[in-house]
Amino acid sequence: GGPPRPVAAFVARAQAPALRAKAEAGWTVPLLRLALAALWLVTAWVSLFVFPRDESLALLARSGVPEALRLPALFGAAGLDAVFGVATLWPGRHRRLWALQAALVLGYSAVIGVALPEFWAHPYGPLTKNLPILALLALLWARDR
Fold it and tell me: Are 96 and 130 in a shared domain?
């Protein structure tokens, strides 16, 4: 019903950063959630079907897991990873999920860091890669309000 505004007046300068952040979150947050879900789901798949089970059980043994609990621990950890992957894809707000995932990453890191300290110096960085995962979880937690 009125004349169009000029491009320079379309968005007030003071509002531009907030609108830009909202627009970026519209595509970056789903991308980050998809990447995180893939991480959890691929980890579950590899734990159950790809990595040699005997080697996984040997790592659990070196981590102090009693023999009777090693197989249930392997299946339980892989199952939890799969649940986290699916839950990450589920629509909605997930602040508790991000906190639980961060707690699990920190727990895994602590156990592995103490029981298998050679993983700190591993050339593929299996423990140091947890730092950006924790940063991603903190970002998702902060954005999920």
Answer: yes
Task: Print pLDDT tens along the chain (145 aa).
Answer: 888 888 888 888 888 888 888 888 889 999 999 999 999 999 999 999 999 999 999 999 999 999 999 999 999 999 999 999 999 999 988 999 999 999 999 999 999 999 999 999 999 999 999 999 999 999 999 998 7
Our CA angle for 23, 145, 44, nearest 5°, is 90
Out of 75, 91, 107, a domain closes at: 91
Q: Is residue 8 part of a domain?
A: no
- In terms of residue numbers, what domain contains 80? 34-91
Cα–Cα nearest to 69, from 80, 78, 81, 57: 57
